[in-house]
Amino acid sequence: MQRNGFLLLQLLAKTLMDTRTATAELGWTANPASGWEEVSGYDENLNTIRTYQVCNVFEPNQNNWLLTTFINRRGAHRIYTEMRFTVRDCSSLPNVPGSCKETFNLYYYETDSVIATKKSAFWSEAPYLKVDTIAADESFSQVDFGGRLMKVNTEVRSFGPLTRNGFYLAFQDYGACMSLLSVRVFFKKCPSIVQNFAVFPETMTGAESTSLVIARGTCIPNAEEVDVPIKLYCNGDGEWMVPIGRCTCKPGYEAENSVQRYPFWGLMLCCQGGTIYPFTAVVGCPA
Question: Is 171 in the same domain as 196?
Answer without folding.
Answer: no
